[in-house]
Design a protein that fits this description.
The chain is α/β, with parallel strands linked by helices. The protein has one domain: Nucleotidyltransferase, domain 5 (2-Layer Sandwich), CATH 3.30.420.10. Helices cover about 45% and strands about 25% of the residues. It is built from 5 helices and 7 strands, in the order βββαβαβααββα.
């Protein structure tokens, strides 16, 4: 069975979800957020994220990793928080690669394409209470995005 570990990074935390099965009727195994300790410097926090990514890979044995990217990243207009998020995404990707896992990445447009739907519908799903029969009403939006990117990777094997 295909099992995907999906991530939606933030500057100081990672949102993650483990999904498996069929992309049209996915099974949510678990989804949560992990925040680096506020007292950590950037290098310490990035190291901490890498340890967490490895822990999740070891715990859930995913088939692949899926990472949701921002819609656009223009370096000349990027804020510090944008750059910090990109660094966290890089740590996730490197952590997966160091464990020999394939990584799927993409912005909302790519995720929508992989889900065989439109970006407009995906945005509506994120605001709703469920997605493909999964109740996600108790999850914050960024965790929902981790679930969504995970589901988008289910068809990628």
């Amino acid at each position: 069975m295909v099992r995907v570990l999906g991530f939606r990074a933030e500057p100081a935390s990672i949102n993650w979800a483990v999904v498996e099965g069929d992309p049209n009727l996915p099974i949510l195994v678990l989804a949560e957020s992990l925040a680096a300790p506020a007292s950590y410097t950037d290098p310490e926090a990035l190291g901490w994220f890498r340890v967490q990514v490895h822990r999740l890979i070891d715990q859930f044995s995913p088939t692949l990793i899926a990472v949701r990217f921002p819609e656009a990243f223009v370096p000349s207009r990027a804020k510090d928080s944008d750059r910090r998020r990109c660094r966290v995404e890089g740590v996730i990707i490197e952590g997966a690669n160091s464990r020999g896992l394939r990584v799927h990445t993409g912005a909302l447009a790519t995720i929508s394409k992989n889900l065989e739907t439109s970006s407009t519908k995906v945005k509506a799903y994120l605001e709703g209470k469920e997605f493909r029969r999964m109740d996600w009403s108790n999850f914050p939006k960024n965790v929902r995005e981790a679930i969504l990117v995970g589901v988008s990777g289910l068809g990628g094997e």
